[in-house]
Amino acid sequence: MLTIHTDTKIHKMSKDNAPVATAKSGDMVRFETLDCFGCQLSSEEQHLGGLDWNNINPATGPLFVEGAEPGDVLKVEILSIELDDHGVMVDGPGEGVTGAAVTEESTKILPVKDGMVTFNEKLSFPICPMIGVIGTAPAGEAVDTGTPGAHGGNMDCTRIGAGATLYLPVNVEGALLAMGDLHALMGDGEVEVCGVEIAGAVTVRVTALKQCALPTPFLVNDDTFMSIFSALTVDEACVGATMSMHGFLMKELGLNEHEAGMLLSVVGNLRICQIVDPEKTCRMELPKSIAETYGYEFA
Ligand code: CA
Ligand code: CA
Question: Please, what are the domains in the chain?
Fold first, then answer.
Protein backbone atom coordinates (compact mmCIF):
# COMPACT_ATOMS: atom_id res chain seq x y z
CA MET A 1 0.00 0.00 0.00
CA LEU A 2 1.13 3.51 -0.76
CA THR A 3 2.38 5.21 2.42
CA ILE A 4 3.04 8.91 2.79
CA HIS A 5 5.54 9.71 5.52
CA THR A 6 5.70 12.69 7.84
CA ASP A 7 8.69 14.22 6.06
CA THR A 8 6.25 15.36 3.39
CA LYS A 9 3.97 17.79 5.13
CA ILE A 10 2.29 21.09 4.49
CA HIS A 11 1.12 24.00 6.62
CA LYS A 12 -1.25 25.45 4.06
CA MET A 13 -3.89 23.75 1.93
CA SER A 14 -3.03 25.22 -1.45
CA LYS A 15 -3.49 24.55 -5.14
CA ASP A 16 0.21 25.45 -5.46
CA ASN A 17 1.42 22.57 -3.27
CA ALA A 18 3.26 19.98 -5.32
CA PRO A 19 1.75 16.51 -4.83
CA VAL A 20 4.02 14.16 -2.89
CA ALA A 21 2.30 10.98 -4.08
CA THR A 22 -0.27 9.87 -6.64
CA ALA A 23 -3.10 7.38 -6.18
CA LYS A 24 -5.68 5.96 -8.54
CA SER A 25 -9.31 6.45 -7.68
CA GLY A 26 -10.23 3.52 -5.43
CA ASP A 27 -6.73 3.06 -3.99
CA MET A 28 -5.92 2.64 -0.32
CA VAL A 29 -3.33 5.05 1.07
CA ARG A 30 -1.69 5.30 4.49
CA PHE A 31 -0.87 8.76 5.83
CA GLU A 32 1.60 8.90 8.74
CA THR A 33 0.99 12.02 10.78
CA LEU A 34 2.74 14.16 13.37
CA ASP A 35 0.75 15.64 16.23
CA CYS A 36 -0.57 19.19 15.90
CA PHE A 37 2.56 20.57 17.58
CA GLY A 38 4.79 18.91 15.01
CA CYS A 39 5.79 16.53 17.85
CA GLN A 40 7.85 19.29 19.46
CA LEU A 41 6.60 18.62 23.00
CA SER A 42 8.15 15.58 24.65
CA SER A 43 8.06 16.63 28.30
CA GLU A 44 5.74 18.48 30.67
CA GLU A 45 8.50 21.05 31.19
CA GLN A 46 8.04 22.28 27.61
CA HIS A 47 5.22 24.72 26.99
CA LEU A 48 3.23 26.41 24.27
CA GLY A 49 5.44 29.52 24.35
CA GLY A 50 8.52 27.52 23.43
CA LEU A 51 7.07 26.10 20.24
CA ASP A 52 8.32 26.90 16.78
CA TRP A 53 5.05 28.20 15.35
CA ASN A 54 6.19 27.50 11.81
CA ASN A 55 5.79 23.82 12.63
CA ILE A 56 2.26 23.91 14.02
CA ASN A 57 -0.62 21.90 12.53
CA PRO A 58 1.35 19.94 9.95
CA ALA A 59 -0.77 17.95 7.50
CA THR A 60 0.80 15.03 5.68
CA GLY A 61 0.52 15.19 1.89
CA PRO A 62 -0.82 16.34 -0.41
CA LEU A 63 -1.98 13.30 -2.34
CA PHE A 64 -2.92 13.64 -6.00
CA VAL A 65 -5.91 11.43 -6.87
CA GLU A 66 -5.94 10.53 -10.56
CA GLY A 67 -9.20 11.38 -12.26
CA ALA A 68 -10.36 13.82 -9.56
CA GLU A 69 -11.40 17.00 -11.33
CA PRO A 70 -12.85 20.28 -10.13
CA GLY A 71 -16.57 19.81 -9.45
CA ASP A 72 -16.16 16.17 -8.38
CA VAL A 73 -16.49 14.98 -4.82
CA LEU A 74 -13.66 13.10 -3.16
CA LYS A 75 -14.91 10.16 -1.12
CA VAL A 76 -12.51 9.40 1.72
CA GLU A 77 -13.28 6.16 3.54
CA ILE A 78 -11.45 6.16 6.86
CA LEU A 79 -10.45 2.54 7.27
CA SER A 80 -8.24 2.70 10.34
CA ILE A 81 -6.44 5.08 12.68
CA GLU A 82 -3.30 3.96 14.52
CA LEU A 83 -2.03 6.00 17.46
CA ASP A 84 1.30 6.57 19.19
CA ASP A 85 1.70 5.48 22.84
CA HIS A 86 1.14 8.92 24.32
CA GLY A 87 -0.66 12.15 23.64
CA VAL A 88 -0.06 15.71 24.79
CA MET A 89 -2.22 18.64 25.87
CA VAL A 90 -1.30 22.24 26.54
CA ASP A 91 -2.99 25.33 27.82
CA GLY A 92 -2.10 28.95 28.35
CA PRO A 93 -3.54 32.36 29.14
CA GLY A 94 -6.09 33.39 26.52
CA GLU A 95 -6.02 30.03 24.74
CA GLY A 96 -9.42 28.56 23.95
CA VAL A 97 -12.36 29.27 26.23
CA THR A 98 -10.82 28.19 29.51
CA GLY A 99 -7.63 30.15 28.88
CA ALA A 100 -9.46 33.04 30.55
CA ALA A 101 -9.00 31.20 33.85
CA VAL A 102 -5.28 30.39 33.66
CA THR A 103 -2.30 32.65 34.29
CA GLU A 104 0.52 30.41 33.12
CA GLU A 105 1.14 27.76 30.51
CA SER A 106 1.02 24.07 31.34
CA THR A 107 1.56 20.82 29.48
CA LYS A 108 0.26 17.33 30.17
CA ILE A 109 1.60 14.10 28.66
CA LEU A 110 -1.12 11.43 28.55
CA PRO A 111 -0.17 7.75 28.21
CA VAL A 112 -2.24 5.77 25.70
CA LYS A 113 -2.28 2.01 26.21
CA ASP A 114 -4.66 -0.91 25.60
CA GLY A 115 -7.32 1.36 24.18
CA MET A 116 -7.32 3.71 27.17
CA VAL A 117 -5.93 7.18 27.70
CA THR A 118 -4.80 8.10 31.22
CA PHE A 119 -5.91 11.62 32.12
CA ASN A 120 -4.64 11.64 35.71
CA GLU A 121 -4.22 9.24 38.65
CA LYS A 122 -8.00 9.10 39.09
CA LEU A 123 -9.32 9.25 35.54
CA SER A 124 -8.82 7.08 32.45
CA PHE A 125 -11.05 6.95 29.38
CA PRO A 126 -11.52 4.70 26.33
CA ILE A 127 -9.85 6.29 23.32
CA CYS A 128 -11.98 7.54 20.42
CA PRO A 129 -9.45 8.29 17.67
CA MET A 130 -10.36 11.07 15.25
CA ILE A 131 -8.78 13.23 12.56
CA GLY A 132 -8.66 16.95 13.37
CA VAL A 133 -7.30 18.23 10.05
CA ILE A 134 -8.37 16.68 6.74
CA GLY A 135 -9.04 18.55 3.54
CA THR A 136 -8.49 19.19 -0.11
CA ALA A 137 -6.86 22.22 -1.69
CA PRO A 138 -9.16 25.23 -2.12
CA ALA A 139 -9.49 26.73 -5.60
CA GLY A 140 -8.62 30.24 -4.53
CA GLU A 141 -6.28 31.50 -1.86
CA ALA A 142 -4.35 29.03 0.26
CA VAL A 143 -5.84 28.27 3.68
CA ASP A 144 -3.68 27.70 6.74
CA THR A 145 -3.92 24.12 8.05
CA GLY A 146 -5.13 25.54 11.37
CA THR A 147 -8.29 26.93 9.75
CA PRO A 148 -11.38 24.97 8.65
CA GLY A 149 -13.57 25.89 5.70
CA ALA A 150 -15.49 24.65 2.70
CA HIS A 151 -12.46 22.54 1.73
CA GLY A 152 -12.46 20.73 5.10
CA GLY A 153 -9.25 21.51 6.97
CA ASN A 154 -9.12 21.92 10.75
CA MET A 155 -12.74 20.90 11.37
CA ASP A 156 -11.96 19.03 14.61
CA CYS A 157 -15.12 16.97 14.23
CA THR A 158 -15.21 14.07 16.69
CA ARG A 159 -17.13 11.94 14.17
CA ILE A 160 -14.24 11.83 11.68
CA GLY A 161 -12.98 8.46 12.88
CA ALA A 162 -12.45 4.92 11.61
CA GLY A 163 -15.50 3.53 9.84
CA ALA A 164 -16.73 6.95 8.72
CA THR A 165 -16.78 8.17 5.14
CA LEU A 166 -15.98 11.82 4.53
CA TYR A 167 -16.99 13.61 1.34
CA LEU A 168 -14.85 16.60 0.39
CA PRO A 169 -15.01 18.96 -2.57
CA VAL A 170 -12.54 18.60 -5.41
CA ASN A 171 -11.51 22.16 -6.22
CA VAL A 172 -8.35 21.52 -8.20
CA GLU A 173 -7.14 18.69 -10.39
CA GLY A 174 -6.09 15.71 -8.27
CA ALA A 175 -7.92 17.08 -5.20
CA LEU A 176 -4.63 17.36 -3.21
CA LEU A 177 -5.77 15.58 -0.05
CA ALA A 178 -3.80 16.13 3.17
CA MET A 179 -4.42 15.28 6.81
CA GLY A 180 -2.99 15.42 10.32
CA ASP A 181 -3.83 16.57 13.85
CA LEU A 182 -5.06 13.24 15.23
CA HIS A 183 -6.72 13.13 18.64
CA ALA A 184 -6.89 10.04 20.88
CA LEU A 185 -9.92 11.65 22.50
CA MET A 186 -11.66 15.01 22.30
CA GLY A 187 -14.94 16.42 23.51
CA ASP A 188 -17.28 18.36 21.23
CA GLY A 189 -16.18 21.98 21.33
CA GLU A 190 -12.49 21.38 22.07
CA VAL A 191 -13.01 24.17 24.60
CA GLU A 192 -9.55 24.22 26.14
CA VAL A 193 -7.93 24.57 22.63
CA CYS A 194 -6.75 20.99 22.07
CA GLY A 195 -7.75 17.36 22.38
CA VAL A 196 -5.38 14.55 23.33
CA GLU A 197 -2.96 15.52 20.54
CA ILE A 198 -1.14 12.51 19.16
CA ALA A 199 0.99 11.24 16.29
CA GLY A 200 -0.19 8.23 14.31
CA ALA A 201 -1.25 6.94 10.94
CA VAL A 202 -4.50 6.92 8.99
CA THR A 203 -5.42 4.43 6.28
CA VAL A 204 -8.02 5.63 3.81
CA ARG A 205 -9.52 4.65 0.48
CA VAL A 206 -9.91 7.58 -1.90
CA THR A 207 -12.46 7.64 -4.71
CA ALA A 208 -13.33 10.44 -7.10
CA LEU A 209 -17.11 10.68 -7.53
CA LYS A 210 -18.55 12.23 -10.68
CA GLN A 211 -21.80 14.17 -10.57
CA CYS A 212 -22.22 13.64 -6.84
CA ALA A 213 -24.69 16.11 -5.40
CA LEU A 214 -23.73 15.81 -1.74
CA PRO A 215 -23.07 19.12 -0.03
CA THR A 216 -19.52 19.08 1.33
CA PRO A 217 -17.97 18.51 3.77
CA PHE A 218 -20.39 15.66 4.51
CA LEU A 219 -19.88 12.64 6.73
CA VAL A 220 -21.60 9.26 6.88
CA ASN A 221 -21.01 6.58 9.48
CA ASP A 222 -22.83 3.42 10.62
CA ASP A 223 -25.99 5.08 11.86
CA THR A 224 -25.74 8.80 11.14
CA PHE A 225 -25.15 11.24 8.30
CA MET A 226 -24.18 14.84 8.81
CA SER A 227 -23.38 18.11 7.12
CA ILE A 228 -20.37 20.00 8.47
CA PHE A 229 -20.02 23.76 8.14
CA SER A 230 -17.41 26.30 9.25
CA ALA A 231 -17.84 30.08 9.59
CA LEU A 232 -16.45 32.99 11.54
CA THR A 233 -19.04 32.62 14.30
CA VAL A 234 -20.76 29.62 15.88
CA ASP A 235 -24.12 31.16 14.97
CA GLU A 236 -23.22 31.28 11.30
CA ALA A 237 -21.75 27.79 11.40
CA CYS A 238 -24.99 26.46 12.96
CA VAL A 239 -27.08 28.10 10.24
CA GLY A 240 -24.76 26.84 7.52
CA ALA A 241 -24.82 23.23 8.74
CA THR A 242 -28.60 23.30 9.12
CA MET A 243 -29.36 24.83 5.74
CA SER A 244 -26.87 22.59 4.00
CA MET A 245 -28.77 19.57 5.35
CA HIS A 246 -32.13 21.22 4.60
CA GLY A 247 -31.06 21.58 0.98
CA PHE A 248 -29.91 17.96 0.86
CA LEU A 249 -33.27 16.70 2.19
CA MET A 250 -35.15 18.66 -0.45
CA LYS A 251 -32.89 17.94 -3.38
CA GLU A 252 -31.93 14.34 -2.73
CA LEU A 253 -34.78 12.91 -0.65
CA GLY A 254 -37.52 14.98 -2.29
CA LEU A 255 -38.96 16.55 0.86
CA ASN A 256 -40.60 19.95 0.52
CA GLU A 257 -39.25 22.89 2.49
CA HIS A 258 -41.79 22.50 5.31
CA GLU A 259 -41.25 18.79 5.76
CA ALA A 260 -37.46 19.16 5.61
CA GLY A 261 -37.44 21.90 8.25
CA MET A 262 -39.81 20.06 10.54
CA LEU A 263 -37.81 16.85 10.21
CA LEU A 264 -34.60 18.65 11.18
CA SER A 265 -36.37 20.12 14.16
CA VAL A 266 -37.68 16.75 15.27
CA VAL A 267 -34.71 14.39 14.89
CA GLY A 268 -31.82 16.53 13.67
CA ASN A 269 -29.08 17.10 16.23
CA LEU A 270 -27.19 20.34 15.73
CA ARG A 271 -23.81 19.97 17.42
CA ILE A 272 -20.66 21.97 17.86
CA CYS A 273 -17.45 20.47 16.50
CA GLN A 274 -15.05 23.14 17.75
CA ILE A 275 -15.17 26.74 18.90
CA VAL A 276 -11.43 27.44 19.22
CA ASP A 277 -10.12 27.68 15.66
CA PRO A 278 -10.03 30.83 13.48
CA GLU A 279 -13.37 29.68 12.04
CA LYS A 280 -15.86 27.72 14.13
CA THR A 281 -17.35 24.39 13.01
CA CYS A 282 -20.79 22.87 13.59
CA ARG A 283 -22.58 19.84 12.22
CA MET A 284 -26.18 18.73 11.68
CA GLU A 285 -26.68 15.04 12.34
CA LEU A 286 -29.57 12.87 11.18
CA PRO A 287 -30.29 9.15 11.58
CA LYS A 288 -29.15 7.22 8.52
CA SER A 289 -32.41 5.25 8.57
CA ILE A 290 -34.14 8.35 7.16
CA ALA A 291 -32.07 8.21 3.97
CA GLU A 292 -32.75 4.46 3.73
CA THR A 293 -36.50 4.97 4.18
CA TYR A 294 -36.47 7.33 1.19
CA GLY A 295 -34.45 4.86 -0.86
CA TYR A 296 -31.36 7.06 -0.91
CA GLU A 297 -28.00 5.34 -1.06
CA PHE A 298 -24.79 7.19 -0.34
CA ALA A 299 -22.29 6.87 -3.16
CA1 CA B 1 -7.35 20.91 15.39
CA1 CA C 1 -5.66 19.32 17.62
Answer: 2-209 (2.60.120.580), 223-293 (3.10.28.20)
